[in-house]
Design goal:
alpha+beta, about 375 residues, elongated, about 50% helix
Length: about 375
């Protein structure tokens, strides 16, 4: 019983800690750029609901921790609520000095910059975490070493064995498994010269990759080469600052692209929604990360930060992307979208966000077999 309670406490505290850091990073992006643009910030909250603890800084911003740690907000001067809806009554009665520090009276490009800064700093945070991780803990690499050979595969027919280290294919130097895949995938049914090390002995073989048909992200049929080998060994290679920076940006980009691809496949029906997780699954992964150590928690926070930044850029009213969509309409029309249009848009956005939260929560309960 005590072990169960300790696990629940660990998972709960880990979840609150991870979410609080990611939300703080996101909201601090809004806050920082708002202050740089001369906007007065009335409140900076981690969590929603009643205030648990708070203090005022010298600029008049109320920094507070609220009861429900499922998000946060920055309330700027002129906002009616945490969703940054304009307080029309207050805005119309503002003096000139007040208008200079009100968010809704700022130029369009400044408002767009303030809104974009939240998702932007999420990506920056992830990149910085990845850079530090790759420099101090190492970048995960999979050597071009044969870990398994599928029966009746081109690799088996050519005589490849478990433990073989491939060093060259089709005249190209190979160091990692990904290098091997790049060459093999574009050469189906074409004989390739392979150089490998088997123990201390260098061997030369000819392998003809098989052909496999698959679909790309757009649903088009694609033919790729296949050897029939896999590798399970992972090594961690410490990188210098320049290489770590390139790898961090590349991984963040690929992570974002893979997430968008997966979501697109869910929408088109090419992929199930079982991988779509919500609060419960985040809590589970937070606890599991905490059990494995600080480096795993750090990695998980970076991944979560990428996803938060990405989702917030979706053009859904209530999210940052929805605000940017309205600013784009204003830039094209030369004047803001109609009040009714914005009002109904926010209602639709709120409905969508609430429905998505309910769906992901139910999905978590089903997938994690909680009952």
């Amino acid at each position: 019983m005590m072990d169960t309670l300790n696990n629940v406490l660990l998972y709960a505290l880990s979840f609150i800690g991870v979410i609080s850091v990611i939300v703080f990073v996101h909201e601090f992006g809004h806050y920082l750029v708002a202050r740089l643009c001369g906007v007065r910030v009335e409140a900076f909250s981690i969590g929603f609901g009643p205030e648990l603890k708070g203090w005022n800084d010298r600029t008049g911003t109320r920094w507070k921790i609220s009861a429900f740690p499922l998000g946060g907000y920055v309330k700027m001067f002129g906002d009616a609520d945490p969703s940054s809806s304009p307080d029309k009554g207050k805005l119309d009665q503002m003096l000139e000095a007040e208008r200079k520090v009100a968010f809704h009276y700022k130029p369009l490009w400044q408002k767009a910059a303030i809104v974009s800064a939240g998702p932007g700093i999420n990506f920056l945070f992830a990149i910085l975490v990845f850079i530090g991780f790759f420099m101090f803990f190492g970048y995960p690499r999979t050597p071009a070493e044969v870990g398994e050979v599928a029966p009746d595969s081109p690799a088996a027919s050519a005589g490849l064995q478990v433990g073989d280290l491939i060093t060259e294919i089709d005249g190209q130097h190979v160091r990692y498994f990904g290098d091997l895949q790049k060459v093999v995938s574009i050469n189906p049914n074409i004989p390739l010269d392979v150089t490998l090390l088997r123990g201390d002995t260098e061997l030369h073989l000819t392998i003809t990759p098989g052909l496999r048909e698959t679909e790309d992200v757009f649903g088009n049929k694609v033919k790729v080469g296949l050897l029939g080998i896999s590798s399970t060994r992972v090594i961690y290679e410490q990188l210098g600052l320049a290489d770590a920076s390139v790898a961090a940006v590349g991984d963040t980009w690929r992570m974002s692209l893979n997430t968008l691809t997966a979501m697109g496949q869910m929408v088109t029906g090419h992929r199930g929604t079982e991988d779509l997780g919500g609060v419960i699954r985040i809590a589970k992964y937070s606890g599991q990360s905490a059990e494995q150590g600080f480096d795993t928690v750090l990695w998980f926070m970076a991944v979560l930060s990428v996803n938060l930044g990405l989702i917030n850029l979706f053009p859904i009213p209530l999210l940052d992307g929805g605000h940017l969509m309205y600013y784009l309409i204003e830039a094209v029309r030369g004047r803001p979208a109609g009040e009714k249009f914005q009002e109904y848009g926010f209602r639709v956005g709120l409905t969508f966000v609430v429905a998505l939260m309910l769906f992901t929560t139910i999905n978590d309960i089903i997938q994690l077999h909680l009952f």
